[in-house]
Amino acid sequence: MLKRDQSRFQHDSQTRPVLYNHWRERDAGGRSRVSSIFPAVDQQQKSILGSFGAPKEHIFMTKVKMSWHSTYRSSKFRHVYGKAGSREQCYEGIPITHSVHDNHFCAVNPKFLAVVTESAGGGAFLIIPLHKPGRIDPHHPKVCGHQGSVMDIKWSPFMDNIIASSSEDCTVRIWQIPDGGLRRNMTEALMILIGHSRRAGLIEWHPTCSGILFSAGYDCKILIWNLEEGVAVKMIDSHPDVVLCMSFNTDGSLLATSCKDKKLRIIDPRSGKVLQEADCKNTRVNRVVFLGNLKCVLTTGVSRWNTRQIALWDQDDLSAPIMEEEIDGLSGVLFPFYDADTHMVYLAGKGDGNIRYYEVSPEKPFLQLLMEFRSPAPQKGLGLMPKRGIDVGECEIFRFYKLVTLKNLVEPISMIVPRRSESFQEDLFPMTAGTESALSAAEWLSGIDRGPVLISLKEAYKRPNPAGLRASKRDRRTVKGIDLLENISPNTDKELLKMVYRQQDELRKLKDELGEKDERIRQLELELKNLRNT
Asked: At what angle do helices 493-533 and 466-474 cross, to 10 degrees?
């Protein structure tokens, strides 16, 4: 005798839930067992169950289809991890400043590391050659020309020996550092820029013009300096309160600012006209950064519930954010860093020991959390190495220099993509901004905009394990310059394996040569484009 059991849900090979009917029958001993399993069918398939002896009063149910969306998102940066430098790679014994100003107090380029330090009788900062880590001499020479505490330092993106500094003495100074570093204290600046009536808190170099520098002071004004003439050419006074952060887009035609009045502004830097303005009534915006060519800006701040949050905005419409996300309930300022080459955003909080990193996309969900680097030591500030100074051979895509005040230590942190290939990774290292200026100060002031002059990082690439290639050459059996493995057929599995490895090496070399030629063609096309722009 057949009895219908209760219906159950099972999944077919297409991962769609299908309703099945289980039929049980009693054997001679009175025990029940499953005799047949019939999927629920429509009216056209009733005859199928009839052939198995199913009762006519069976209730047929239609197949239920449900949509299925995977939460997995493919990304080549999913496995990026942070690697802290060893003790031999750190810089120890640095008297890091105890200033409470929300800034990084650190700047780095491929030649030097600059750190703002504690000093009596004025402000000072150290200049350390990057290739000389270890314990720093307590009497190491300093740049000590300011009469007040140094509030911000920035290396020129075009000249590795030029650094700008702003101070509480209301001045901005330009310094030229010798190639080997300082041998004695430097007190005479290359240029002294006087224009602010109160302390100068922020400085920012123009991204494509080497002769333009922006500075923001506590007098609520932004000054534009023409360094070719040493004068201020424009003053932007559209902020009623102190400017907290400045950020340029890729070609420097737009300037984004955050202000203490809780407003986000997009400004034309030449005219000072406010193009877009967002009144963040329920939040307090602290930091802002342009997201390259995505036509978006990212802000970090504090929500109405006093939690740290990030927000993404359309640069052409600041009426409402595209998305908002709360991070945590800590109180330190959240600093954003954007990598235009990989479209990744790094978030590091002042006083935190962790660094979160996201991948940015022009479509939802816009920001995808990848991973988080954790460290027990809190950070006071972070210096950022330009792309032309990272280790391409180790697949390093980003590098921070972390200030640890408790240990008087500067620790490098590398963000690495784990890959085993020995060739240059073009998808990780596209053409990036170089040291050549795209236009002069006069050209920029006249209204010309140009993107950065791009370079390839392939020239800095070094094959990580050349010993393996030499070993493969020793394994080859030659007689009078003739490769025997090429002229005879393999007799054993070992000889066949050697032949396969040799052919793989030859294919790899050919691919590398083809990639080098493609890169050369790309460089020539880029040079031709730059010549046409000029």
From this structure: 140
Give how far the C-alpha of residue 324 lies from the chain's centroid of Cα atoms, to the nearest Å. Answer: 19
Count CB atoms within 10 A of the CB of residue 149. Answer: 19
The answer to the question of residue 168 being in a domain is yes
The Cα–Cα gap between 254 and 433 comes to: 18
Name, in order, each residue with C-beta under 8 angstroms of 220's C-beta and a sequence gap of 6 or more: 237, 239, 240, 241, 242, 243
State residue 464 phi and psi, 5-degree precision.
-70, -30
393 CB-contact burial (10 Å; exposed 0-12 / middle 13-18 / buried 19+): middle
Q: Which residues pair with 415 in a beta bridge?
A: 82, 398
Rounded to two decimals, what is the model's pTM? 0.73
Mean pLDDT (the chain, rounded):
82
| CA-wise closest residue to 212 among 441, 505, 486 | 441
In the prediction, which pLDDT does 64 show?
A: 37
Q: What is the pLDDT of residue 478?
A: 42
Neighbours of 143 (CB within 10 A): 25
CA distance 201 to 153: 10
Other CB atoms within 10 Å distance of the CB of residue 457:
20
Beta strand 142-143 pairing with 134-135: unpaired
Cα 233 to chain center, whole Å? Answer: 33
CA dihedral angle for residue 345, residue 349, residue 355, residue 356, rounded to 10 degrees = -50
178 belongs to a structural domain:
yes
* Alpha-carbon gap, residue 421 to 224, rounded angstroms: 46
The 3-state secondary structure of 49-108, one letter per residue:
HHHCCCCCCCCCCCCCCCCCCCCCCCCCCCCCEEEECCHHHCEECCCECCCCCCCCCEEE
Q: Range of 298's domain?
A: 81-433
Tell the burial category of 131 from Cβ atoms under 10 Å away from its Cβ (0-12, 13-18, 19+): exposed
At residue 61, does pLDDT exceed 50? no
Query: Any idea what the CATH number is for the domain that residue 97 is in?
Result: 2.130.10.10
Contact by Cβ (8 Å): 222, 216:
yes
pLDDT at 253 over 90: yes
CA distance 172 to 215: 8
Number of other residues whose CB lies within 10 A of the CB of residue 87? 11
Backbone φ/ψ region at 138: left (φ over 0), alpha (ψ -120 to 50), beta: alpha
Q: Would you place residue 490 in the very low, low, confident or very high pLDDT band (cuts 50, 70, 90)? A: low
Determine the Cα–Cα distance for residues 4 and 40; give it in Å rounded to an integer: 13
Query: Token pair of 444, please?
Result: 């920029």
Q: Look at the chain and report how many structural domains it folds into.
A: 1
Residue 379 lies in a domain: yes
Classify residue 215: in a domain, yes or no: yes
Which one has a higher pLDDT value, 378 or 512?
Answer: 378
Q: Which residues pair with 263 in a beta bridge?
A: 279
